[in-house]
Known about the structure:
- It is a single chain.
- The longest helix has 34 residues, at 306-339.
- Helix 3 (136-163) runs antiparallel to helix 4 (167-199), helix 3 packs parallel to helix 6 and helix 4 runs antiparallel to helix 6 (220-240).
- The strands form 2 sheets. A 4-stranded antiparallel sheet has the order 1-3-6-5, with no helix packed on it. It has a 4-stranded mixed sheet with strand order 2-8-7-4.
- It starts with a helix and ends with a helix.
- A hairpin with a 5-residue loop joins strand 7 (92-101) and strand 8 (107-116).
- It has 400 residues and is an alpha+beta fold.
- The chain has helices at 2-16, 20-23, 136-163, 167-199, 210-217, 220-240, 243-259, 266-269, 273-303, 306-339, 349-380, 385-399; strands at 27-31, 37-38, 44-49, 54-61, 75-77, 80-84, 92-101, 107-116.
- The protein is 60% helix and 12% strand.
- The protein contains 12 helices and 8 strands.
Amino acid sequence: MTRYLLGLLLVCALATSSPQGFAHAVLLDSSPKPGEMLMQSPAEVVANFNEGVGPIFFKVLDVKGQPVGDPGEIRLDGTKMILPLRATLPNGTYVLTYRVISADTHPVGATFGFSIGEPMKTVDATADAGSRSIWSLAVAVNRWVLYAGMLWVAGTALFLLLLGIEGSLREDARQKARWASVLTALSYVLAVGFGGADMQLGGVDALWKAATWRSGLDSTLASSAVLGLIAMALLYAGFVAGEQRRHGVLIAGATLAIGSFLVTGHAATAPPAWLMAPVVGVHLLATAFWIGAFRPLLLSTGQLSAADSGALMQRFSNFAVPAVIVVLISGTAISLKQLGSPAKLFDNDYGTVLLTKIILVLVIIGIAAYNKINLTPRLIANDVAGVSKIRRTITLELML
C-alpha cells in the first residue's frame, strides 16, 4: 500500500510539474526595467505580461520597503498593468513590486529595483520580500494530493466499469476509493483556501480570515472545487450503490471529476480552449484508468488463481496499451503547446521534464507489452511461476 501511494504521488508530481516560465503569466517588459536608471521621476509604472492578469498589488517602495509616489488606481490595458504615480519621486533607489493572478489562477509576483538620477543602491531585505508567499509549498503539496486523489477515485470507477471485477477485489477497490473520495473532497476545499492565502501573501493565520477565502472563491479554483465536490459525492455514492444504480452514478462522477480540472489551470484554459480542454480531458481520463488499475491488478496476483489473474490481465491489456499511447500523445501535445516550439525541448527545464516523461511512458509501454506478450499467457496457462514476475513488473510500472 505504501509503495502504491508513493508511486501515485510520483506520477502526479511528473504530471503537474511545470516551471513558471511556461505555465503562468510571464513579465515581457516593464517601465522602468530592472536595474534601470531614470533621469526623472516617472508619471506611471507599467508591467506588460504575455497574457491578461488580475492585479493583487502593484507598488513602488523606497529602499526600506515603505510605499511612495502617492499611487492612484491600478489600470489594466490588455496585457499591461499600469500604476499612476501622483507624487514626484526624488532622486534615489526604489523598488517595484507586484503580484498578479495569471489566467490559470496561479499567483505570480516579482520584485526588482530601479533608480532615479543616480546609480542604484542596495535594496533592504524587507523591501525585497514583498512577493514571497509562505503558502506556496502548501499549494504545491495539496495540488499533488488533489491530482492523486482525483485520478485514483475516477480511475477506480473507470476500472470497475470497464472490467467488471467481482468479489473481494471489487470490495477492496470500492472501499479504498470511498476513503480517497473523502480525502479528495477535503483537498478541493483546501485548494480554495490555500490558493487564496497564496494570492494574498497571507500569514500563518490566513485560513481564518474571510478575505483569504474571498480571493480563492473569486478565482477559477471555486468552480473547480464545486465540480470536484459534486463529483466526489457522486463517486462515493456510486461505490456504495446497488448494481443497477451504480454504473450511471460512477459515469457521472468520473466525468465531473475530470471536468473539474478543465475549468482551471493553464493547460486546460490556454487558447484555443475548444481544443486544449478536450486534449487535457483525454489525457487525464487515460491516466486515471491506469492509476485506478494498479492496486486491483496487484491484489489479483495474490487473491485469484494464476489463470483467473491472467484473464483479468488480458482484459486490462485490451484497454491499457491504447490508454498509455493516449497519455503519451495528449501529454506531448499539451506540453508542446506550452513550450511553443519543439526546439525548446532542449534548452530549458520544462523541456527536460517533458523529455523525461516521454522516456518514462515509453518504458511503461515496453513493460506493458512484455506483460501482454510473455507473462499474461503464462498466467492464463496457470503457470504459478509467472505470478511473482508479473507482480514485480506491475510494481515497476507503478513506480515509473
